[in-house]
C-alpha cells in the first residue's frame, strides 16, 4: 500500500537504476489508471562531474572529512564524540546513499512503483555508517535545479561545537551593582506602571482609529483601494494603528493632551499603513501564485516573483495574509480537493522477469549459458563466480554481468559495491547527464575477435581482383565494399576461370618464439619513458644509418657536414628543394587526432618534429610502399646540402709593404 508522502522506487528502464520519487498526489485518469504526481530526487550519477565536485567541496564537514566533533554540555560534564573512521569501500557506498532534492514535478504511472524507501535530511549529528547498515535508506543535504544546473543548500548550517556556545557571564553578588548601561541594552516602548487608567487608554485608541479612518478618506490612493467607509474603518483598526497610538503615548509621557496634538499635527492627520494596504491586488495575486509553487520559501518567492519587494515586506505580508478571508477560502478549497483525491493505492509486487536476465532460475550455478556470453565470467562488483541468477550489465560489447545480490544493489543504489573505473562509464549513460566530450579509458580490455575468411571469399579475391581492388581497399578501410556484387560476379567468372591450381605466394614469417624474444629484449634494453610511449619511433631509431647513407650514394663527409649544420636543408615553406616536392594538384590529407576513448589500448603514437621532417623527404610512391609494408625498413635519400662558398682569409697583419698599381 502506497500513500501520499511516501518515498518510492520507480522503474523507467530495465537496465538503469530505479528512480527515487516522493508521492505528492494520486490521481485517477479517465481510463481508470492511477497516476502519481511526484517530486524528483536525483542521484550523483544523474548530475554532471562539475556539480559532483561542487557537492564534495561544499558538503558539510561530516560528509567531507568524516571526522566532525559533537559537543554535549550537561552541567559541568563535556563529552566529545567523533565520527567513526570508514574504509574506502564504505565511503564509496555512502555516495550511493546521497540524493539531491529538487522542485521538479512529474507524473508517472503508479504501476511502475517497485517498492518503498526512506529519505531523510542529513543532520550533522547523524552517524554516517548508520545509513549503510539500514536497507533502502538515503539522505540529502543539497537541492538540485535541473534547469539552472545548480546546487544549493536546503537549510542553514547547524552550528555545533564549543566555539558556537554562548559565553555566560558570572553571576553578580548581592552587594555588587550592574555597571552596564541599560539604555544601550534595550529600548523601553511601554510602561505598565503609567498614570493612565485602562478606560482612558481605550478611549485614546478609539480616537486613534477615528483619526486613521479620516486620514484614509483624505488620501486619494486609499480611497481607490477602500472605496467604502466600512473598508476604511477596518483598515484603520489594524495593529499598525494601535502600535502607533501606544508609541505616541510613550513618547509624550502618557499625557493625553500632548498625545492628541501629536495624532493630528498642523499638516493633517497621520496616516499609518501596513503591508496589507501597501500591496496592490496584482502583487497579492503574484504572491499567491509563488506560494503555491515554492511554499514558504520566501527567498525564492522574492527572487523569482517579487524582486522589487524586500524580504521583510514579503514575510510581513504572509502573516497578515493568513488573517484574511482569502486564506481561509483557499484553505477550504484545498481541503475539499484533497478529500476528492486518492489517499492511497495498492500496487501488487512486480514479478515479471527482467529482460537483462541471462540464465533462467534453476540453471547450474556459476555458469553463464546465455548466447553470446562467455562462460565462467565473474561478477563485476563482488567478483564471485557462482550465483543462482545472472544479469547483463554495462555496454553490450563488454559482456559484463552481475550476480543477483549485486544486481539488486545496482537497481536500488545506482552503483557497484566496489569502486571500479568501468562504473564511471556506465554512469555516463544516465539520461540526466551528457557524455559528450568524455574520453575515458575503459578499465576492462576489449574482447579479442578474429575474422576468418571462407574458401569462397579467398577465391573471390583472386577471381574478382579488378572489382575488389584489395590494395585500394586496404588504404581506405573506412570505405564500404559491396560484397554481394563481388560474390555474384565471382559465381559468373568461376566456371570460366582456369582449372589449374592457383599459386600462392609464400611469405616468410618469423616464428612466434623469435618475436617474443625480440620484444622481450627490446623492453629490457629500452627503458619505459614518456617519450618512448608517446613517440612512434625516436629519431635515433629511424631506419637510416651511415651505412645506409653510403649505399644510397650519400657521401659520409657530406652527411656529417649536413648534420653539423643544424638539420635538414629545407626551403622557406618547410618543404625540401627538389626531392619529394608535392604536386599542385595533389590533395592535402588532413591529420586526424586519435581519440583515447576509441583507442584499443592507452598507447597513443604521436609523430615528433624530426619524424615529420623526414616524411617530407619521401615521395608519394615511397609513402604508399611504407604504409603497405610497415615491417620493412624505410630508406631515405637525403638531399645533398648546398656547398658553402669559400670565404677568403685576410691576414690581420703583414710585414710586406702594400703596393698599389695604377
Automatic annotation (TrEMBL):
BAH domain location, by residue? 1-155
Look up the record and report any one GO term of the cellular component aspect.
NuRD complex
What family is this protein classified in? Answer: Belongs to the metastasis-associated protein family.
Is this entry keyworded Disulfide bond?
no
The Gene Ontology terms for molecular function here are: chromatin binding; histone deacetylase binding; sequence-specific DNA binding; transcription coactivator activity; transcription corepressor activity; zinc ion binding
Residue ranges of every copy of the ELM2 domain listed in the record: 156-267
Superkingdom of source = Eukaryota
Per the annotation, which location comes first and is thus the protein's main one? nucleus
Pfam families per UniProt: BAH, ELM2, GATA, MTA_R1, Myb_DNA-binding
Q: Where does the SANT domain lie? A: 274-326
Species name for this entry?
A: Cyprinus carpio (Common carp)
Q: Which GO terms describe its biological process?
A: negative regulation of transcription by RNA polymerase II
Q: Which InterPro entries match?
A: BAH_dom, BAH_sf, ELM2_dom, Homeodomain-like_sf, MIER/MTA, MTA1_R1, SANT/Myb, SANT_dom
**Under what name is this protein listed?**
Metastasis associated 1 family, member 2
Q: Which UniProt keywords apply?
A: Acetylation, DNA-binding, Isopeptide bond, Metal-binding, Nucleus, Phosphoprotein, Ubl conjugation, Zinc, Zinc-finger
CDD domains the UniProt entry points to: BAH_MTA, SANT_MTA3_like, ZnF_GATA
Q: Which Gene3D superfamilies match?
A: 2.30.30.490, 4.10.1240.50, Homeodomain-like
Localization terms from the record: Nucleus
Amino acid at each position: 500500500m502506497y500513500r501520499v508522502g511516501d518515498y518510492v522506487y520507480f522503474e523507467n528502464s530495465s537496465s538503469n537504476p530505479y528512480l527515487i520519487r516522493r508521492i505528492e498526489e494520486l490521481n485517477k485518469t479517465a481510463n481508470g489508471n492511477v497516476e502519481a504526481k511526484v517530486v524528483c530526487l536525483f542521484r550523483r550519477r544523474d548530475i554532471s562531474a562539475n556539480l559532483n565536485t561542487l557537492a564534495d567541496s561544499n558538503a558539510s564537514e561530516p560528509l567531507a572529512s568524516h571526522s566532525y566533533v559533537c559537543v554535549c554540555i550537561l552541567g559541568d560534564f563535556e563529552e566529545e564524540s567523533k565520527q567513526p573512521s570508514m574504509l574506502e569501500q564504505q565511503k564509496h557506498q555512502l555516495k550511493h546513499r546521497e540524493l539531491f532534492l529538487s522542485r521538479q514535478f512529474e507524473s508517472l504511472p503508479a504501476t511502475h512503483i517497485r517498492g518503498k524507501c526512506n529519505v531523510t535530511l542529513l543532520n550533522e549529528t547523524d552517524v554516517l555508517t548508520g545509513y549503510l547498515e539500514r536497507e533502502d535508506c538515503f539522505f540529502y543535504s543539497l537541492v538540485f535545479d535541473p534547469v539552472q544546473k545548480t546546487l544549493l543548500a536546503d537549510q542553514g548550517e547547524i552550528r555545533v561545537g564549543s566555539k558556537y556556545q554562548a559565553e555566560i557571564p558570572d553571576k553578580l553578588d548581592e552587594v555588587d551593582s550592574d555597571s552596564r548601561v541599560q539604555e544601550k541594552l534595550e529600548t523601553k516602548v511601554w510602561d505598565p506602571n503609567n498614570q493612565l487608567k485602562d478606560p482612558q487608554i481605550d478611549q485614546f485608541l478609539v480616537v486613534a482609529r477615528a483619526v486613521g479612518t479620516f486620514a484614509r478618506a483624505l488620501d486619494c490612493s486609499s480611497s481607490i483601494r477602500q472605496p467604502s467607509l466600512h473598508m476604511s474603518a477596518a483598515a484603520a483598526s489594524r495593529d499598525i494603528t494601535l502600535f502607533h497610538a501606544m508609541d505616541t503615548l510613550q513618547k509624550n509621557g502618557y499625557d493625553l493632551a500632548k498625545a492628541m496634538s501629536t495624532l493630528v499635527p498642523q499638516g493633517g492627520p497621520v496616516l499609518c499603513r501596513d503591508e496589507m494596504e501597501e500591496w496592490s491586488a496584482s502583487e497579492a495575486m503574484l504572491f499567491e501564485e509563488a506560494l503555491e509553487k515554492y511554499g514558504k520559501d520566501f527567498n525564492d518567492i522574492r527572487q523569482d516573483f517579487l524582486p522589487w519587494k524586500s524580504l521583510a515586506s514579503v514575510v510581513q505580508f504572509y502573516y497578515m495574509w493568513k488573517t484574511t478571508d482569502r486564506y481561509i477560502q483557499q484553505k477550504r478549497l484545498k481541503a475539499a480537493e484533497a478529500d476528492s483525491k486518492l489517499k492511497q493505492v495498492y500496487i501488487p509486487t512486480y514479478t515479471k522477469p527482467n529482460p537483462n536476465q541471462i540464465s533462467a532460475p534453476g540453471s547450474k550455478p556459476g555458469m553463464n549459458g546465455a548466447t553470446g556470453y562467455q562462460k565462467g565470467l565473474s561478477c563485476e562488483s563482488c567478483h564471485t563466480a557462482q550465483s543462482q541468477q545472472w544479469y547483463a550489465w554495462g555496454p553490450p560489447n563488454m559482456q559484463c554481468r552481475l550476480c543477483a545480490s549485486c544486481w539488486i544493489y545496482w537497481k536500488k543504489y545506482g552503483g557497484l559495491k566496489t569502486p571500479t573505473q568501468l562504473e564511471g562509464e556506465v554512469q555516463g549513460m544516465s539520461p540526466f547527464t551528457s557524455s559528450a566530450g568524455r574520453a575515458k579509458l575503459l578499465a576492462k580490455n576489449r574482447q579479442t575477435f578474429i575474422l576468418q575468411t571462407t574458401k569462397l571469399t579467398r577465391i573471390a579475391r583472386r577471381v574478382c581482383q579488378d572489382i575488389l581492388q584489395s590494395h585500394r581497399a586496404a588504404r581506405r578501410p573506412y570505405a564500404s565494399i559491396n560484397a554481394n556484387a563481388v560474390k555474384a560476379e565471382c559465381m559468373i567468372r568461376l566456371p570460366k576461370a582456369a582449372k589449374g591450381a592457383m599459386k600462392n605466394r609464400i611469405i616468410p614469417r618469423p616464428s612466434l618464439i623469435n618475436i617474443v624474444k625480440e620484444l622481450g629484449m627490446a623492453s629490457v634494453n629500452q627503458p619505459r619513458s614518456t617519450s618512448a610511449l608517446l613517440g612512434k619511433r625516436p629519431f635515433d631509431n629511424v631506419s637510416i644509418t651511415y651505412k645506409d647513407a653510403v649505399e644510397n650514394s650519400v657521401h659520409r663527409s657530406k652527411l656529417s657536414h649536413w648534420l653539423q649544420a643544424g638539420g635538414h636543408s629545407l626551403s622557406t615553406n618547410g618543404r625540401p628543394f627538389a626531392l619529394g616536392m608535392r604536386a599542385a594538384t595533389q590533395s592535402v590529407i588532413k591529420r586526424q587526432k586519435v581519440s583515447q576513448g576509441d583507442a584499443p589500448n592507452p598507447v597513443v603514437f604521436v609523430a615528433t618534429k624530426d619524424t615529420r621532417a623526414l616524411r617530407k623527404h619521401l615521395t608519394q610512391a615511397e609513402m604508399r610502399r611504407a604504409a603497405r609494408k610497415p615491417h620493412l625498413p624505410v630508406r631515405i635519400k637525403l638531399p645533398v646540402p648546398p656547398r658553402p662558398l669559400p670565404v677568403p682569409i685576410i691576414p690581420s697583419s703583414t710585414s710586406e709593404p702594400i703596393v698599389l698599381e695604377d
